Predict the structure.
Amino acid sequence: MHELPITQSILRIANEHGEKSSATRVTDLYLVIGQLSSIVDDSIQFYWDIISKGTLCEGATLHFERIPAKLLCLDCSTTYTLDGELSACPQCNSTRITVQAGEEFRMDSIEIETGD
Amino acid sequence: MSKIVNVVEEIMSSNDDLAAQNRTRLDTAHVLGMNIMASPGSGKTSVILQTIEALKDKLRLAVVEGDTAPVSIDADKVILAGMPAVQINTGGSCHLDAVMLRQALPEVPLDDIDLLIVENVGNLICPASFSLGTHFNVVIASVPEGDDKPYKYPKIYRGIDALILNKIDLLPYIDFDVDYFKRGVQILNPNVVFFDVSCKTGEGIAAWAAWLKQRVQAFQTPAN
């Protein structure tokens, strides 16, 4: 249920940027979500439909770009992406790993309509 | 007409900004802040009480307790143990966030303590997304929860400094593969320090308390 405050953040950011660009309507939001970030698209969509009502963002479509978790083995320098369950280095079985991607959670852009 | 506007903003930025303010407040008071996260029933309050017992003559500490329901059971236990405690009732919310900690801080005697322990709401998912401004995070896991937790809830194990495995006295009775569990945590976080403890028998508490005391001392010793 932490998706509610998160969705409120998304709405605030989109409305702010929409207003700054003199939008009459925000039609699309482009969000980037890493595989490790524990965010559920469906829940965000659920809250979004409710809380965006009556704002610049009402009816806007949410686009989720999912970034897979990309890991680097610190022992043998193998890079691998997580496909399903968390796993040690497929090459040398080490657990000395660093996460290179997969924790993203940001808004890249919005698409707006202006009165022009 | 329609056009694309570049945003490139972290969704959690407003929480993170407030967390940074909390951090400054703790820094100014020379108080080390520790955020404890765990599932319900893992023994968060028990570990805190044992930590108080082990450190009460060496450190001054206070506890902020997060709970979803308007109860003060946990805070009352801490006060009974002789330490100041502030209860935050999140009103049904499943995690603490930086705003809630900010509101609680004025009630904490920051000038009179060395360590602030924040007990987050029992939950392995939501607390991981909300930084509070504490200096470091700890997860408490317990044997009956099962050894697959790092594989199912990876995010909470990122960015923690220590992992306390509680209820190890139950290991003979439960199929819990300690190596499998720790391996999962290490993949997510190679530098984590593990403490195997039992609040029931007291095993391992001394090592944990010593580590924590050292953290506080290192924090309070000015770097030259």
Residues 13-218 of chain B form a domain with the Rossmann fold fold (CATH 3.40.50.300). The mean pLDDT of chain B is 93.
